[in-house]
Amino acid sequence: MIEAMMWQAIVVGCVFVWLFMRKGAWAALVASFSWFGYGLWEYGMKTRILCSGECNIRVDLLFIYPLLIVISGWALVQCAVSIDRGRGGR
Fold it and tell me: What's CA 55's distance to the chain center, in Å?
């Protein structure tokens, strides 16, 4: 299960890199690095580099998931604003 989350984090990070390249929104670049970092974190948990072996209760995710949601939302709003500006809005 951790392996699937690791790959999903990498895919989401690539989507934010694509958004950064298309729209130039710096928040998308921050979000991509956050998702790539989360993917590395999950890899470290899977290989037990960051975990002693009993990783059944993942309290760290109570901090990581809300942070990823806030950063991703910020990036999506910034990309939406740049799309609106490109259409002549504001």
Answer: 22
* Number of neighbouring beta carbons within 10 Å of residue 40: 15
pLDDT tens profile 6-52 = 889 999 999 999 999 998 889 999 999 999 999 999 888 888 888 87
Each residue of 42-85: pLDDT tens digit? 888 888 888 877 777 788 889 999 999 999 999 999 998 887 66
Residues 6+ apart with CB under 8 A from 87: none
Range of the domain at 48: 2-86
The tokens describing 18, both together, are 């694509």
- Give me the amino acid identity at 36: F
Q: Give the Cα separation of 5 and 41 in Å (integer).
A: 10
Overall domain count for the chain: 1
Tokens found for residue 26: 């710096």
CA 10 to chain centre: 8
